[in-house]
Amino acid sequence: MHRNQCWSFLVLLAFSVSCLAQKEDWLPVTPQELQAKEVPGAPAGADAVRLHYAVYFDDNTLSQFYYTRIKILNEKGKRPEGPADISIPVLESPLYTVFLTELKARTVHPDGSIVEFTGKPFEKTIFKGRGLKFAAKAFTMPDVTVGSIIEYKYKYVYQRAVNSPFIIFPPDEWVLQSNLFTVSERFNFKPYEGGVFQSKSRANLEWDGAHITWVAANLKEKPRNNGNEVQLEAHNVPAFTPEDQMPPEDDFKPTVRFFYSRRGSSTVVDKAWQEIGKDQYDRREEFMGRSHGVREAALEAIGAETDPSAKLHKLYARVQKIRNLTFERARTEEEQKKENIKDNLGVGDVLAHGYGHSDGITMLFVAMARAVGFDASIVEVSDRKRRLFSKELTASTQVDTEIAAVSVNGKDLFLDPGARFCPFGMVRWEHTAAEGLKLDKKGGTWVKAEPATYDKSVTRRTTTGSIAEDGTLKGVIVVEFRGYDALEYRLDAIDHDAARKKKDLEDEMKDWLPKGSLVTMVTAQGWDDGDQPLLASFSIEVPAFAVLAGKRLLVPTSLFQSQHKDAFKHSERKYPVYFSYPFTEYDSLSATVPAGFTVENVPPQQEASLSYAKYQNVSRFDGHQLVTQRRLAMNGIYFPLEKYSELKGFFVKVQVGDEQQAVLHGGNVNAQKGN
Amino acid sequence: MLKKRISVALLGVILGFCSVAADAASIPDWLRNAARQTAKKYADDVNAVVLMDFRETTVKDNTDIVTHGWIAYRILRPEGKNIAQYEIAYSDETKVRYLRGWSITAQGQEYEVKEKDAFERSLSTYEIYSDAKEKILVVPGADVGSVVGFEYERKGRPLVFQEDWSFQDRLPREKMRFELRLPSRWEFRAEWINYPAQAPVEQNGVYSWELTDIPRIDAEYRRPPVEALSGRMVLTFFSDKIRSQTYRTWNDLGLWYGQISAGSRDSSPALQQKVQELAPAGRPLLERVRALARFAQQDVRYAAIEIGIGGFRPHQASETFSHRYGDCKDKANVLSAMLAQIGVKSYLMPIHTQRGIFTEKSPPDLGFDHAIIAIQLPDASLPGPLSALYLHPKLGQLLIFDPTNDLVPFGQLPYYEQDSYALLVTDSGGELIHLPVSRPEVNSIKRTAKLKLSPDGTLKGEVEEVRSGYHAMEIRGRLKDESEQDRKKFIERAILGPAMGSFQLDGLTLENENDIEKDFIVRYKFTAEHYAKSAGPLLLVRPRVVGEKSGYLDFNKPRRYAYELEAPKLDNDVVEISLPDGFKVDELPDPAKASYPFGEYHSATEVEGNMLRYKREFRMNGTLVPLEKAGQLKLLFSAINVDEKSVAVLKRAN
């Protein structure tokens, strides 16, 4: 406790000094810092810690100042590409130049002697071209020993090009967590205080004026305003270590994200979103208003169909046939010109051209549905694969994908016509259970497309084969994917040829089977039809599947390795458990056993059950066949830490059930021998 | 004044979509002709084929070398689209004078890009700084069926007058041509590696070689590196004008390297003082050498700054000593300078970090990427056999040492340098020497497990692993930068996880973690519920418990290349499981025995009282299992696989 207080004191001392002096001077190095051999709170064995980290942004001078002080705790801290090898990124473009200025670095030995970095950093070009250049200033700190403090500071100054009509603001985000434990951090942000923005002609880019807003996440202490500036101090920030099967990492690091809102727009979150929704609505309606030929096409698609759901399905099938450019490789302007790919100015163009991007196809679907009498809307949805939605961050970039909502029997049916191969009735998983703004004249209402239930996303693996006297299992496995599983396989393989698809599925099967298994894919069908299951059959050979033990043959009742055990190996966990979507696995195994063996023991039925998950594994011996049926169903996606123990217990039971063995007796066989 | 706001991220997106309006493509005849070639049939996993690869090298009398090249590909699969990105290296000494690319798509669209469209990128990887860079040209229209071509010209004055024509890699090649133009009174020598020598056709002073239909080097798990298998021709030029920059023999190359590194082993008072401090006179010689070696290995931080000849020439030893950092040759060089202070002679040794690229047949070639040191020791100073000793017919005992690898103890060599070839640079020249291979006993895991089985199938106890040689280096490297928590996760994931379904790690201790001179000892305790499976009155227990020894072979395909191992090794396991009261052993697994010239495996399970004891030994004798032994290797791995799954059957006593 005393040591912790001591470190806090040091930090306060440093800050008070820094407030009196220039913020950008070297901070005094205290005797405690020099002599420290370990830092309270830092993980045991850590090679280095950040004693201090400071970031000062000023959008008026377009400058960003960084200060880093690191203590090397042991030999590992001197490793190549470790904390003593410094690389500072530099960014340039034709519209602005970023100057890396005022770079200073020094090593302070435990005895207080200082070795200044007097060399010149090398500019290391990482990437250059098309008006962009990514480079790094690289240097290595001089005379680093265990116990040394290394520190460096620099400033980026952003200068816009003389003729640029834009004011360029750097990305204004504080990230408080790094791969090193940090004793103290200080952040300061001074927002733009200049004149107003005049133009209204391009709603995304030009505003009547702007004010700054910030959104913080995972912070103990919130930023505070000091006049027009925003400040934050943090202490003893642990190093960040990600975990298996966790939600998006960025959601768990302490961050502050700044963004400018249009002057005059509401500071009330709900109202601000209504204003964003209104902008989006106007633009979407304008696009859907250019609808030449849409009604005719819709009528032709539905034909004589009268059932509302069937009508929608036919409209959906019609727009899914349109070439979806979002799922093709990006093309240059020249390639578009030579391939005669033109801009679509409205849904009529999407229809006439026969191609469009996902948003255009979704809007065409909504326009066609409206044309034949449906109440249909565009929903701007967030993406939970990238980052979980934060309502306070009232920026349209958070909801940048479009899906459709159609009222059927008084309920919203959410559809994803802009996602290739997405079956009718489903929405890609990353846009489910995620906030979406259903646009209307007034702005919109918040909605959520629920993920399809566990029974809609199914992997079914059916194995039939025979076990030879040496324990080898030979046979055929037929795999059927439905729902999200099928969709993700199809989208992953969208640019793959038949050979690659075959290899990927064979590799997947090898991962499921015991090591050393031979796998050859025999057939695959359904790659291009989202409404049908994806089916593949494999010829397999699993050496030593069954094990001889004297006069007994021990036969596992499950063939496949568990796909979920790694997330539950550890007794402790820091972050929630996260599945992309609910799912079901069905496995069946029918294996003929060698002649002469009779059953001595078949495992009893294995079961596990929670309100959101079920598992069952049943084996029986049927004449000369061992028959096993297994089912695992998971109907949840997000499990907070308090559920970890329960969930781990469930998957332990699954593991135990999957490892059961049937015991056969009495064969007249040769032992399994290498040579 | 109109002011607008845009975020940097959005700006990036906008710029990304902007492209320079292109002129109409002007496809050269050579590419059009290549595109007209009848398509040949290839395996369905061939991504692209090189239709032609022509190169013209002109050596000027002023010692400039100009290389002009034409290369055309046909994209066969989506994975082949990346060949539309062409990379050409350059440096402060070598300039790219011309670079252009084209494509013709299967639909007939044509594209052209010029040098101004190229990106530039540093080729630095491990270095803090290197002047090696590359230009990257990306041609539009890269789709399956497209033919893509590039033409370039590069001019430079090399440090050494040698050209490398690599005509085999991961893509099949249909037509290749190399033309050489030399000034009068210049000579050349052509040497062929992994391919039969071909005589050139000479016409009007132009020498040319042509090859057709060169197969690709396939991907295969644990095959030797591509460069050790692929065909290439090394051309060395000779002229009075470049006497100091060329070589006919390994001895000449050694002389050249000796000259450029001469004078870099200066001393300084501080260096001398440090030598006195670390290795005072009066101590046994080997101890003094060991202390200095340890300093270069542990106290001089690895950091590389390479500009021009700096890629070959070490920095001054005094400078490296003062900075306490340097690259591989700097570290070797500062050690050499320190050894000289105590009267021990040593020699720099350029080497390649991938085994097999240099062999006893390799012609003199400067294609090394690393440097180590050979320390000349009097026989009397040696306590006994050391793995890294090389007996030189003239220089006597040489201890080979790599000060860059800080995980390998003095007296041993990193596994990737064993059984490899290195250039020994002496005062009188140089020679390519074959580096020693450690005995299997040097690289071992001795695993001892003392465990207790409960009637409900729970297995609990402690495992000790004593790791030496490359096994120790490997795990030290894996764990050294990890927190305690992450070390536990590593044991859970890499050792216990593959062996059992449900377990808890109860404790982990590491011994000699930072003392590389000693074996690395890992002890872990665990509890594994349901380890043994109940089957009625039976309890099924796998006595092997942890550790998987069999390697991976893709049994679906016939093996095409030799199988490479890190180093010879000898692993032993002894697992003792105390059986639960009320159970007796009903069946024991059969012993395993598989023995081949390159390796052997045997195991046995026995019962003594209530103790189930499993013992096994796995030995691999060399660094390479030749292709013709692949069938035997498969049998060996199969025998291990069966043994590792074997089960003892316990029965509840009535």
What would your notes on this structure say?
The complex is a heterodimer of chains A (675) and B (654). With 675 residues, chain A is of the alpha+beta class. Chain A folds into 3 domains: 257 residues, Immunoglobulin-like; 180 residues, C8orf32 fold, CATH 3.10.620; 219 residues, Jelly Rolls (Sandwich). Helix content of chain A is 20%, strand content 36%. In chain A, the strands form 7 sheets. In chain A, strands 1, 2, 3, 4, 5, 6, 7, 8, 11, 13 and 14 form an 11-stranded mixed β-sheet that branches. Chain A has an 8-stranded mixed β-sheet with strand order 25-26-24-23-30-34-33-32. In chain A, strand 6 and strand 7 form a beta hairpin. In chain A, helix 3 crosses helix 8, helix 4 packs across helix 8 and helix 5 packs antiparallel against helix 8. The longest helix of chain A has 21 residues. Chain A is globular, with a radius of gyration of 31 Å. Chain B has 654 residues and is an alpha+beta fold. Helix content of chain B is 18%, strand content 37%. In chain B, helix 6 packs antiparallel against helix 8 and helix 7 packs across helix 8. At the A-B interface, strand 3, strand 6, strand 7, strand 9 and helix 6 of A face strand 1, helix 1, strand 7, strand 17 and helix 10 of B.
